[in-house]
Design goal:
By secondary structure, the protein is α/β, with parallel strands linked by helices. The protein has nine helices and five strands, in the order H-H-H-E-H-E-H-H-E-H-E-H-H-E. A five-stranded parallel sheet has the order 2-3-4-1-5. Bound molecules: adenosine-5'-diphosphate (ADP).
Length: about 190
């Protein structure tokens, strides 16, 4: 976990000047980690390449430095692990395992379609952690699209009920850092 978290994705390595829609003071306040103690959910929303994973990881690094336990996963890998545990009859143990971390980071919500039954598994985890542990979630899609992402409007509504109750939503409206040297190739907007 630490190895994946620490590959140069730090707050000092983040160029706030590149992303002017982002309030630096707000991000630095999140890095003070009081949201972890309050068991809140932080959502980073925005198009690909705008630094959502970077910021989620950087805050995770700060949490580890502060002695907190952190687990980082993509949504697809997390659901894959839960589905495997369910097949093996160890879902309860797996959910308990993921509940042990003070901060669970779930990256890349919305890129890949969730496997059948995956939304239900993720809901069981989110519900088990609700008001017991903090989360950071990143997504390139809006909350209105969660029904489509999870393939189930009822599960999506139940997920959002938990994940928006004690929540901090950070919307990034900018261009991709990955494509910063290729602005001439991008469609105008
Ligand atoms: P997203 O999760 O929004 O798709 P990432 O956080 O993965 O985007 O960012 C894509 C790449 O660009 C990563 O290597 C990240 O470290 C880098 N990056 C993005 N935004 C910035 C920034 N403002 N300053 C420095 N590096 C950035």
């Amino acid at each position: 976990v630490m190895a994946r978290l620490s590959t140069l994705k730090t707050l000092s390595g983040f160029d706030f000047a590149f992303q002017p829609s982002l309030d630096k003071a707000r991000i630095m306040a999140l890095a003070e980690l009081s949201f972890v103690g309050r068991c809140e959910a932080v959502h980073f929303l925005g198009p690909p390449g705008t630094g959502k994973s970077h910021l989620a990881t950087a805050i995770g690094v700060e949490a580890i430095k502060a002695g907190k336990s952190v687990y980082f996963s993509t949504l697809a890998d997390l659901i894959g692990a839960l589905a495997k545990a369910e097949r093996e009859g160890t879902l309860r143990e797996k959910i308990r395992f993921f509940c042990r971390f003070s901060l669970l980071i779930v990256d890349e919500i919305g890129y890949l379609p969730v496997i059948a039954g995956g939304g239900n598994l993720f809901f069981q985890l989110v519900n088990a952690r609700y008001e017991k542990g903090a989360m950071i979630l990143t997504s390139n899609r809006g909350f209105a699209e969660w029904g489509e992402i999870f393939g189930d409007a009822v599960v999506a509504t139940a997920l959002l009920d938990r994940l928006l109750h004690h929540a901090i939503v950070v919307q990034i409206d900018g261009s991709s850092y990955r494509l910063r040297r290729h602005a001439d190739l991008l469609p105008e907007h």
